[in-house]
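Hi support team,

I submitted a single chain yesterday and got back a structure, but I'm not sure I'm reading the token output correctly. Could someone confirm the output below corresponds to the sequence I sent? I've pasted both exactly as they appear in my results page.

Thanks,
R.
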Amino acid sequence: MADWKRGLRRVIYPAYEARVLRKMPSENLPKHIGVMLDGNRRWAKAVGRDSAHGHRAGAANIEPLLGWCDEVGIEVVTLWLLSTDNLNRPAHELEPLLEIIEEAVAALAVQRRWRLHPVGALDLLPSSTAAKLKAAEEATSDVHGMLVNVAVPYGGRREIADAVRSLLYEQAAKGTSLEELAAFIDVEHIADHLYTKGQPDPDLVIRTSGEQRLGGFLLWQSAKSEFYFCEAYWPDFRRVDFLRAIRAYALRERRYGA
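Hi R., thanks for writing in. Yes, this is the structure output for that exact sequence:
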């Protein structure tokens, strides 16, 4: 990009962001947002680099995102960093990606600005990776900042299956018969065993890279969520893109099926 274009953007974008903030409705902002950080590999291919470079660029954009969330008062953020399907990638792709995720989560924990909570099938990860995610959670357990769910490795169907399995084990330990369980099991009982148990469901789900599908992200929790799809690849996702998503949500009339 020509230098004059970069200079022009440095002038225009801050002014535009300030304008968006001024016109942002203050009474209808999301409390919990889910973010599908998509497009790292395609971004890397577009700039002529390998996948690891794209994942590192994407990891570098996580801290700015959390700062933007703090600015508008978001209480919970769920970041989808790795799907259960991604675990099937070749080792030469998966191992660097896991290392990048470990480094990114550790860097967030050191800052002690946010309370980190891993959500996902940790038993599918290498033990060293799972241990580092749990260590980040423990290191930030007393932080009073925004709750950040780190979804690694995450799959919506797997979460629901794990929740039902956990519920069955719990009731079996109490001696509950199958007939008794069938009689009382309901939505709330399953929700109490999700990875995000005790948290509000996401009000808004953002997906970058132009893809317009959930891909298994928060299948249970997003039943009443609003969705915002952004064309930018995740490494190129900017504050102005985030503010547009929040504004779009704030201006929607949520009918909840009515």
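A quick pointer for reading it: The chain has a mean pLDDT of 92. Let us know if anything else looks off.

Best,
Support desk
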